[in-house]
Amino acid sequence: MTKPALDTRDDIRFFFGNEERRLRDIDPQMTVLNWLRLNERKTGTKEGCAEGDCGACTVILGEPDGMGSMRYRTVNACIQFMPTLDGKQLLTVEHLKPDDGSLHPVQQAMVETHGSQCGFCTPGFVMSLYQLWLDGGEDDRGAINDALAGNLCRCTGYGPIIEAARKAGGISATDPVEQKRRSDIATRLTAMIEGAGMLALEMPVGRYFAPRSSDELAALLVAHPDATVLAGGTDVGLWVTKMLKRIDPIIYIGDVADLKSVREKGGALTIGAGVTYSDAHAALGMIAGDVGELVRRIGSRQIRNAGTVGGNIANGSPIGDTPPALIALGARIVLRVGDIRREVALEDFFITYGKQDRAKGEFVESIIVPKPAAGVQFKAYKISKRFDQDITAVLAAFAIRIDGGKVVEFRAAFGGMAGTPMRAKKCEAALIGKDWNEASLSAAQLALSRDFAPMSDMRASKEYRMLVAQNLLTKLFIETTAPEIATRLVGREAAYV
Ligand SMILES: Cc1cc2nc3c(=O)[nH]c(=O)nc-3n(C[C@H](O)[C@H](O)[C@H](O)COP(=O)(O)OP(=O)(O)OC[C@H]3O[C@@H](n4cnc5c(N)ncnc54)[C@H](O)[C@@H]3O)c2cc1C
Ligand code: FES
Ligand code: FES
Questions:
Q1: Is the beta carbon of 119 within 6 A of some atom in ligand 3?
Q2: Measured from the CB, is residue 53 less than 6 Å from ligand 2?
Q3: Can you give the C-alpha Rg of the chain in angstroms?
Q4: Cα separations (Å) of 23 from 10, 26, 31, 86, 443?
Q5: How far is the CA of 114 from the centre of ligand 3 (A)?
Q6: Which atom of ligand 2 approaches the CA of 47 most closely?
Q7: Residue among 43, 45, 74, 78 to mutate when testing ligand 2 (max atoms within 8 A of CB)
Q8: Which of 315, 346, 362, 414 to mutate for ligand 1's pocket (most ligand atoms within 8 Å of CB)?
Q9: Pairing state between β 376-383 and 250-252
Q10: Atom 2 of ligand 3: nearest residue by CA position
């Protein structure tokens, strides 16, 4: 097996705005937010929740796009660790001000629409608006809501900020990361990293390795079987900021080039474990509109720009959003330890609450998602208290094929109903081979109550969970038998936004 790269380096290389930085002796667990505020005294970026929820800490990360320019994305600085900046460009609200001292159009629009009152949320909103502006602006209310869903404001009622988003979209201005500068930064970033060896920080406070290939990753995990794999950090970041854990060593997979692709082959998608939700979204939306819509509702744009589908599976959460949908689609995952790979059905990966079929040193390499066969209808429903940026109470995913009024294929998977994401096999058996009518629907609903004994927690009571799960079967029935009836808050076309 390929050995870990012998060449390593111990400095984090990135651009802070347009300034090249090389940092040594940084605690690998220091968050970008703490570095900005405590080390750099750049206090424009705020701390609200320190858990990725409020958006006050929103910054933009730029990465070479492989085509000679840069790609920019918002993330929550409060849950990103400093070494993950390696090879990237960090932009904060301080970088928006043009050299002539005027305001950037998104800032000017916020002033003109009274989009700022107490001001605490403002820098975060400005960064999300700036991202929208970089992407060409938006007039559509749904798209603006989507871009701002990860930013909370308790003062303005959001109306003026949405107005600012519309207003700024129409204004042209000199871009602080104008095209010419972008290609220069992309070239310099690539030169800083290429051939420079793997980032390996070995400090008394903790170790951090950032392999650049899956062979290096596999070898490192064999050498450090107790290491914590870090992908987007949207779970792991909170272990540090909320649980005050020390993690040692950390092996970061965000720089593993061959885990960052989505490939289509033989009627299935193969999604590398390092692929973020944002990068998997379009492809998953093409597999089934409802999977795309589900992904669009995961966390916020900042969370989707960092979090991965692989992390959503590997964390084993009973309320992760993608596993039930992927189980209903018949997804499989590739697990790898050293040079040995095995493929398991996703539903078999989840053994019981907190326990997955993953050995020490083994990692999720990819996820294989088959396209639904001809005639199969796929539906997924997320139930949460808020539409955006909320944790699921119950999630149902169904793949159903009806032929001549009979159910000939049916896979049903749920989240939030048991200690793991799970298929509802009694419910499936109650329907397969039966006429698809109200009597078989009732039988399937009754069978569901034998599949699961859900628990009560702060999100939902066990009675609510069961009732809503049964009602989602009714929704499936309506959508497959009377599609003219409106059943959705947001149209299916949103899946592709
Ligand atoms: C504000 C906020 C909102 C959220 N909203 C949602 C939501 O709506 N729906 C939802 O489902 N989740 C949500 N989450 C949870 C989280 O975003 C997801 O679970 C996400 O998919 C985790 O992926 P990650 O790449 O960030 O994983 P990380 O945090 O990097 O890792 C998560 C776990 O998986 C392990 N791991 C990661 N990759 C691998 C791998 N390749 N092999 C082996 N182990 C691995 C890590 O060691 C860790 O144990 C939210 C989180 C936050 C902070
Ligand atoms: S401080 Fe709230 S999202 Fe980062
Ligand atoms: S202006 Fe006060 S929180 Fe938004």
A1: yes
A2: yes
A3: 23
A4: 8, 7, 14, 10, 63
A5: 11
A6: 1
A7: 78
A8: 315
A9: unpaired
A10: 118
Shortest-distance Cα residue to atom 3 of ligand 3: 153
d(CA 417, CA 370): 25
Task: Tally the residues of the chain.
Answer: 497
Cβ(54) to ligand 3 under 6 A? no
The finding on whether 54 has its CB within 6 A of some atom of ligand 2 is: yes
Could you tell me if 395 and 317 are in contact, meaning their C-beta atoms sit under 8 angstroms apart?
A: no
To test the pocket of ligand 2, the residue of 36, 49, 302 to mutate (highest count of ligand atoms within 8 Å of its CB) is 49
Q: Is residue 387 part of a domain?
A: yes
- Residue 495 has a pLDDT of 39
Last residue of a domain, one of 252, 277, 294: 252
DSSP string for residues in 103-131: --HHHHHHHHTT--SS-SSHHHHHHHHHH
Total Cβ atoms within 10 A of residue 114: 13
Tally of domains in the chain: 4
The amino acid sitting at 484 is E
Alpha carbon 254 to its chain's center: 13
So what's the pLDDT on residue 177? 72
Ligand 3 near 373 CB (within 6 A):
no
Q: Is 385 found in the same domain as 333?
A: no
Query: Which residue type, as a one-letter code, is found at position 171?
Result: I
Can you give the residue range of the structural domain that contains 485?
A: 376-496
476 and 415 within one domain = yes
Is the separation of the CB atoms in 250 and 228 below 8 Å? yes
Same domain, 405 and 460: yes
Mark the ranges of the chain whose per-residue pLDDT is less than 70. 1-6, 170-174, 176, 179, 490-497
| pLDDT of res. 418 | 97
349, 391: one domain: no
Give yes or no for a cis peptide into 249 (omega within 30° of 0).
yes
Q: Are 278 and 146 in contact (CB under 8 A)?
A: no
Q: Which ligand is nearest to the CA of 153?
A: 3
CB-CB neighbours of 321 under 10 Å:
27
Distance of CA 23 to the CA centre of its chain: 28
Residue with tokens 């109470």: 393
Task: For the chain, give percent helix, strand, coil, nearest 5.
Answer: 35, 25, 40
Strands 70-76 and 355-356: unpaired
